[in-house]
Amino acid sequence: VFPESSLKVTGVDFLKSQNTRQHHTDGYNIQSLVVRRGQPFQVQVSLSRELRAADKLTLRFGIGENPMKNNGSLLSLKPEREDFNGWKISMVERKGKECLLSVTSSPNAPVGKYNLHVKTGSNIYRPENGVIYLLFNPWCEDDVVYMANDAEKEEYVLNDTGTIYVGSAYSIYDRPWNFGQFEEFILDACMYLLDKSKLSLAQRRDPAHVSRAMSALVNANDDSGVLLGNWSGNYVSGTSPMDWIGSVMILQKYYKTKKPVRYGQCWVFAGVLNTVMRCLGVPCRCVSTFDAAHDTEENLRVDVYLNDKGEKLNSLSFDSVWNFHVWNDAWMKRTDIPNGFSGWQAIDSTPQEQSQGRFQCGPCPVKAVREGDVYLPYDAKFVYAEVNADRVYWVVKKVNGKDKYFKVGTETQAIGKNISTKAVGQNRRVDITKEYKYPEGSKEERMSMQRAYSFLRPSGLMPRSGYASTIRTIGANAEPLVPKEPVTKTGLHLEIANTEPLHPGNPLEMAITVKISAPGNWTVDLIGSCQLQYYTGNVQANLGTIKETITLEGPSEMQIPLKIAPDAYMKTLSSVEDEVLILVTAIAEVKETNDKLTKETSMRFQYPPITVQMPETASLYNDFNCAFIFKNKLNVTLENCKLLVEGLGIFKMTTFELGDIMPGRIMKSEIVCTPTRLGEKKIVAKLISNQIKGISAEKGIFITE
């Protein structure tokens, strides 16, 4: 008997356009097939002859350097056989020499790059470009990242543009950010990070392990990851954190050089981590917290030191309150902790504090922060402190040549305000503070706080600055923690606001309002100071102080003006590389009762806008013009202006050098755009100069067939 002519494979078609449409992966700018786990995809196999009953046809999927069956890195699948590690394969139809096969991966398969080989008898066929990228699947009910709501998946997985909220609690503003998870090389950069993370195959199944590893790899600390953090104000040897408008350039550059990209600050870390998580298929959002506590050493307290003019002192304290801090929430079911803590998990790639020996943070269940279950992994104590610490003010005075510390105020509701993220499907801010905290003063808040305190060790109210800890000038009796604002005998209350728009080049006109609600005649000593500070709370310049004694007949209020001339701040404004905020601090003391109160407010400068002019719609591959118009309405020249623009699916990041723009001058830059992708697209613009770091604008356009 002659042996049958042996069966050979002559080709494999990955049916890319139909598979990627069904898997919501048609956006990825990559040659290979990208699919999501737990969902069927089809491949068409062409054979040298018709398939017969005795023929053996096997699809082999291998992941990693050296795939082996015994550790699950090599999957060998035969049509209509029992499943293998949760994977299944079936014959959809046979037509002559063509076989249409359907492959369903396991909903908890390891994510990564798989190689496909087809084995027929003793022949092995290796298709060219036989790489399949397998991602997490929020559309699959059995995947732990499953998200039921379609609009939410559209936003948190598929939206490649967004907004990061920055500024201060007093003046929140939005910074457009291009995530660009579908752009060229971004998926490959994420796969490189996965390989670099040294996660085991089992850990690659679990978004909790993957998101923790990515929070470590997005910063360059201890693993030469993507971005080097720099808060020094000196960025000559790299790109200033203010100059990025998206993650694409950063990840592409990192993938090309395999070296950390310089430089990032918190919103850049969060923007890049958001790109990485969305790219891998984990729903993710950027979360901004205003007045976020840093480095409280788990004692839930931040100490602020003031001199006797009411100016904040930098050097005394390790802990600090950042005007804002941005991290991410990733969506998943947690299988490693008790039930009830699934949903949003906080992850943070800004390198602040080591966790298990590496600069990584999370995933921390947002519900654990709200309920006070701070013992749950990972890093719940740290995240809890960021949004729940108390702020204590101390005045440092020289007494007989020694520093003495006087407590002038405690704020228990000042930290972790206005927690914000972009709304689903809309360009507006939505406040998610209630997901992180119960309402201040509610019964639930008190219970949550008691619970958290039983796992943390808050110290008594002692100042703990660098050298204050060695000088015990205040009685060592620890005061109990009071979960409410101290009530003053006179109902003393302070408000700080600007009375005129805060335009660079103009005088800064602000006012401190002193209110007293108790009847009677009261004498109030007021000191106020104005400083420029970075968003990390680091003071850059002292601009001026006031000192007044006022008499009030309660109940009444009085407004005390605080005015700073342009000369006092313009030099600092032009010389710093970062955006600075205006910090006003006021200390009031009622002479008759010794009531003391301290209040601080940070405000940002206000800038003229950039206008983007372009059509509302355009059609695929048809050019259109886009113009960026800026009028300098300030009465100072803006020096060394550059305009950064980017439109994903329309044009690559472009920089216009505009030189100096005199007061009243209008500049116009134009770019010809060629849309290469359908749907709602966005163009982002940002203007940077010596004086101003953050004017941005965005505009949407709808691209049709």
From TrEMBL:
It is an enzyme of class 2 (transferase). The keyword Repressor does not apply. The keyword Transferase applies. Keywords: Acyltransferase, Calcium, Metal-binding, Transferase. Ca(2+) binds at residues 388, 390, 440, 445. The active site is at residues 266, 325, 348. Pfam families: Transglut_C, Transglut_core, Transglut_N. Its EC number is 2.3.2.13. It comes from the Eukaryota. InterPro entries: Ig-like_fold, Ig_E-set, Papain-like_cys_pep_sf, Transglutaminase, Transglutaminase-like, Transglutaminase-like_sf, Transglutaminase_animal, Transglutaminase_AS. Transmembrane segments: none annotated. GO terms for molecular function: metal ion binding; protein-glutamine gamma-glutamyltransferase activity. Residues 258-351 form the Transglutaminase-like domain. Binds 1 Ca(2+) ion per subunit. Its cofactor is Ca(2+). Belongs to the transglutaminase superfamily. Transglutaminase family. This is protein-glutamine gamma-glutamyltransferase. It comes from Agelaius phoeniceus (Red-winged blackbird).
